[in-house]
Amino acid sequence: RVRVKYLRTSFKIDRYEFADEEVIDDFGAESKVYLEVPWDEYTAPYNLTVWIDPLDEITEGNEDNNNDTALVCTDLVAEEIEFVSPAQNKMSLDAEKFTIDGCIRNGDEDDIAFPVSNFNVTLDVKKRYPNDTLGEAVFNTTEYVEDPLYAGETKIRFEFDPKDKFETGGNYTVQLIADSTGDVCESDEDNNLTSVDIFVYNTSGYTGGGDLIPVAEGEVHGRVVYTIGDSSVLRLEPGSEGTVKYPDFIPHTADEIELARLFVYWYTSHKEGERYLPEIADLDVRFNGHSLNLAGNYSDNPGATDFDLGYGLYSYDVRDHLTNDKNVATVTNHAEWRTGVHAIGLLVVYEDEEEPLTKYWINEGADVMMAANAKHPTGLPSGDCITTASFGDVERNDTENVSAALLTVLGMYVSYDRSDLHSDAGDLLEFNDRSIGSRIGTGHWVYHYNDSGIALTENQWEDVSDYMKRGDNLAEIQSTGNYMLANNAFLRLIFPPDLNVVSMTAPEYTPIGIEHSIDATIRNDGRSDAHDFNVILRVDGMSMIRRTDLNLPAGESMTLHLYNWTPMLPGHVYNLTLEAEVLSGEDWCEVETDNNVLTQHVIITEGGFGNESGPVGSGREGERTGGVFMEEITGQVMNRMISAALGEGGGAGIFSLWEWILKLGMLAVCALTFEIGYLIEQRRHNRRM
Description:
Layout: E1 46-51, E2 67-73, E3 76-85, E4 98-106, E5 112-113, E6 119-128, E7 134-145, E8 152-160, H1 162-165, E9 170-178, E10 193-200, E11 213-227, E12 234-236, E13 241-246, E14 256-272, E15 275-278, E16 283-287, E17 290-291, E18 294-300, E19 310-317, E20 327-333, E21 339-351, E22 357-369, E23 386-394, E24 403-414, E25 427-431, E26 434-435, E27 445-447, E28 455-457, E29 461-463, E30 471-479, E31 483-495, E32 499-504, E33 509-510, E34 516-524, E35 530-539, E36 542-552, E37 557-565, E38 573-580, E39 597-604, H2 657-688
Parallel strand pairs: 2-5, 33-39
Antiparallel strand pairs: 1-2, 3-4, 4-8, 6-7, 6-9, 9-10, 11-21, 11-22, 12-21, 13-20, 14-15, 14-19, 14-21, 16-17, 16-20, 18-19, 22-31, 23-30, 24-29, 24-31, 25-26, 25-30, 27-28, 32-34, 34-37, 35-36, 35-38, 38-39
């Protein structure tokens, strides 16, 4: 029934359907009843009215709230554009791919959203000019929605390689268009589009590739040491200065300073509006009061971000200004903006003839890196975030009997939790494709080393002895999500002395009571002289003598008379052990130690009168762990020395006075015992008689 109250009107009823009535038998106070609405195929928006008590069969206090009308429709709304990776402020053509989510919604709170499917959603990218006008589409990409979209919001993902879509970086506008081909009849056709202005960088400073530069290499009988003194983070206002003091780490026995290099690890920026822009540090650096000239100037910045700080490394030659006492570095900020200094490092190579032969390589530079992570999605794969340092011209004999170590310095370092990373570790440290160092949390470096702003690995100098090879050797510092600034890589090869106990003059067989001269031949197979070493002779584990403060040049041998030994236990097998104690220094330890010990067993036999054949020898050599025993001996040999280290066939029997005295003594004791027993028994017999 339709009532028209107007005098003149016209209308068309295009849809008027009755659903089955539902009878509610019991409807208590505050009760709710849910009825199923019979859906038809959607073609266009329409009104749906629901009546309760349509025939006024129940007397109510309020008869005006018995019906409600809602619009049944589809309304596709382009809600939002989310930049998943890279983040909106980190978009660059270096990214592996762009991942963008288009958020669309069907319906609103006041309407009934009819499920819809089989429509298109388009991401349209246009060039944006300085006057904010838009050019033609640079490219677009469309996703087809086949499954029904119910009420609420959903995300449509777009992924593409930016290098395939953009010819160059710059200002662009990204538009999200829902139902871009007009396939759906909606209640509102004016909310299908939303847009975001973006800037795409041509390159990202978060990538690696800024290889560290080799600046020095050499060899010295001495040490290579690195320190940051009492460095702490310096935040220098314009015109202010900071100092770093270095303790007495160079001994007074040092002969000459071969190299001394100062490293200033800095960062700086200034703010314009909401953006931080990088700057180059303007620093005046003095060492022990002397003004310095730059030897190395390196800088880098992330670039693809609105928090763009400048980072860098300045290096200086301070060889002529270094002293054996305390040294002081002073830095003054001449810029009009605040500049930070994370630390001031000092690398010194000095000669000391008491130290082993050492080769070294020095690399420096500045490379900011951060592969994609969940907290800061740069879109960069970890394979693009690698800084390398090369150490060339390593000779074949440099890879043998060597203590090799690598020191890496990060001028800035931030490690993230595992939950923020796309892998278990946030970074890697490798040498010749072999992982080195120890994991500390998700990374390999310790930030705020000694309360400074730099980061070193747990051991600082990491052992790479087993990975050295002839020719070029390569160190790689890689971000797999952590934020870092690679500045230095130092390689140090130490060639310790190698003490080799070649032989000792202990017999294989001997009767008791014979004195033997125990002599030792020791050779230094290393490339460095051995200083102040000790040699110990032990018999059955008991120390018999310890010779101290011995010296042996590289490649030479020496023979020592250690002890005159007389065995006194008949039938015993003695264990004679000769040991050259392992040498070590502050940075090194003797590499090959198995040849520092030689053991020989001496069997005590019965003696003769000097004219019988001795026992047949076994031909055994002295026992040792590692090394080759039968070697040619060079160097000094003591006069009239007889080496009995190698077993031979039996010779003439040896007359031993001590042995015969003991034998006769034992016979006398036996005879006396027999005589006493006989006399006692004789006495007992006489008493019985």
